[in-house]
Amino acid sequence: MRRRTFYFSFFIIHFSLLFSLSSCTDWLEKEKEAIVAEDEAFKNYRNFQGYIEEIYDCIPNKEMVNYCTSWNWGDDAVHNPEGYAHMDHQIDLGNYRNWWTNGQCWLNGAGKDGSWANKYSLWKGAWYSIRKCNMGIENIKSLIGTDEERDLLLGQLYFFRAWWHFELICYFGGLPYIDQSFEAASIPELPRLTFQQCADRCAEDFQRAYDLLPLDWDETLAGMQTSGKNDLRVNRFTALCYMGKCLLWAGSPLMKESEKARTGGVPQLLGASSNGKTYDYDIEFCNRAAEALGKALEMVTRGTVNYKLAEFKYTNIYDHERDENSSSNYSDIFYTRGQNWLQPGSTEAIFRGLSQSDDCNWNCSKIFGPKVLGIVPHDNIIHHPTANLIDQYGMANGQPIYIVQNGEYVLNPESGWDPEHPYKDRDPRFYHDIVFDGFHYVINTENFTDAQRKLGLDYCTLYTGGAMRAVDNGSSTGYFIQKLVPHQCNELDRWCYGWENGNTFHCYLSYMRLADIYLMYAEARAAAATSAKELKDKPEYCPSLSAIDAVNALRDRVNSDDYPMAHIPAQFLDTREHFLDEVRRERAVELSFEGFRWCDLQRWLLLTEPPYTVKYSHEFERLETEGWFKNHDPKDAHVAGFHKQELISRRLESKHYWFPLPDKDTYLYEGFPQNPGW
């Protein structure tokens, strides 16, 4: 039985577009036979909307590419050796060309069952969908319908034309902006734009979408046909948020540096060291970004949209047992269970694709936990966090454990962190997200085998030399992650096995959620600031929030009597650079394992800079007896010899700030060259 979550009741009209899906030249071709029954496709609102909904279906699901995909490519994650074929390790090796041939990479991946590969591929899906957008825009005149219906259709087409272009340029740098369909008889030699030029074009289309789309589809006459099932449709708020993100990315240090060094629009190689430019933003782009993001947050504050931060209320934070008085739940952003396959996102998801929900039971649910003696079944591929990510989770007093000075992590003397009690008094999100030594991993031990019981696998043994530290079937870093898939998704607790007993486990990664808007707004405001004083200012377009307020809103969300979380300490508010350091750390924590870290390090010009080029493990000796953990909180455990140990040193050069284009596409014409260094 397969379930694919559709919130749309319109049927998807599949038009057999008879061009190759393997090349960026897809947008160049337009045969007369390219559309089946073109008159039918565009003649009325229902058919036209069905045509557009195939674009929604093309949005790649990063968690469902092949069986055990990877999407965390920064310094935050590693696979154990059986998973070294996956893209995160290939990036560690500098083998970026592997994105084109690696079927487990969502940039060009195939579906888990090998079906219609462009549904799981950014590259193929983008050119396919951009062409559909242009064809739809060019045929809007054929519509027999109301002005409202026309606006809804056009708004979606403009949004998706911008969104697919933006996703592409984040990884490949500036590209031609395709705003029309072309005849197959001639190949137009469109020059590559710079990232900033292409982002400007995206912003224009996002603005058009904002002007045309409603805030709430249920309040439109056309949307009432699918009332209550419009959650996945893009709206005015979605367009505004993406406009802000697009402009912030364009204003980031990498994009500013590439613009200065460009020749013919191609992203250029950077100097041997770029760390000194990491705070050098394009002020104009950042001001525009801040205004768009600030307007979006003002809508949230005033309650004119339905988005709000999900509540972080738990009776047992380790087991994700929610407070019964909680109206929304943080864990529901990432996975749902026992909710009839409800797609994750809670009240925060701003942009999602469609999801084949029951595949989560057979795919993503089995790649995060220990494989020792089959505690989590299937093969030995495990995607787990590095010590680098663990160190980003600061203390309950709001202090970071480490600060970066001269390319090294230096212990922050104000943090109060104790290496003999390394997990005590940490950021509450640490206890929600991270599985660490002594963690009660298996709740139901009735069916333990003698071997599993002998090793004591109900409680994690993640100290150096522990049973769950074996490189082949455990954690090489000393940690597992349960943010996206909870620890009860194991062979004995069986949260994710089938759909009996109301399991209906469903996990999904949203492309954009509300917490990210707070963080991008804070970054854009700080990037454009000329003094620390401006960090406290509340601009006219967002009179409710300063840059500081935006970050503290996320800390307030997780603050409770049992697990306190303080605001940004004063010593990080004295300069825009110190504040930006904390914004960046907050992004690493709040958005951990959601696939943003590589793009962040890339655009901040830190991807090739130490200490971000080395992945670490944590090594230590456990001092408590095994039985101690049955009656005590693991965060209070006493350890000895706690230290970092190098696992992987990434040999990245300046060329690795952009992925290479497929070689065959760069041979088409002189104006479409390969990225430098490739």
Rounded mean pLDDT is 90
**Number of helical runs?**
18
**Helix percentage range:** 25-40%
Gyration radius, rounded:
25 Å
Taking the alpha carbons of the first and last residues, their distance comes to 44 Å
Strand content: 5-15%
Features:
678 residues; alpha+beta; two-stranded antiparallel ribbon; 18 helices; 14 strands; 30% helix; globular; disordered N terminus
Could you describe the 3D structure shown?
30% of the residues lie in helices and 8% in strands. The chain has helices at 38-41, 45-57, 87-92, 98-101, 122-138, 147-172, 195-212, 236-251, 253-261, 283-302, 387-392, 428-433, 450-455, 514-528, 547-558, 576-590, 597-603, 663-666; strands at 77-79, 314-316, 321-322, 335-336, 349-351, 383-385, 402-405, 408-411, 434-435, 480-481, 506-507, 512-513, 614-622, 639-649.
Write the layout of secondary structure elements.
Elements: H1 38-41, H2 45-57, E1 77-79, H3 87-92, H4 98-101, H5 122-138, H6 147-172, H7 195-212, H8 236-251, H9 253-261, H10 283-302, E2 314-316, E3 321-322, E4 335-336, E5 349-351, E6 383-385, H11 387-392, E7 402-405, E8 408-411, H12 428-433, E9 434-435, H13 450-455, E10 480-481, E11 506-507, E12 512-513, H14 514-528, H15 547-558, H16 576-590, H17 597-603, E13 614-622, E14 639-649, H18 663-666
Antiparallel strand pairs: 1-6, 2-3, 4-11, 5-12, 7-8, 9-10, 13-14
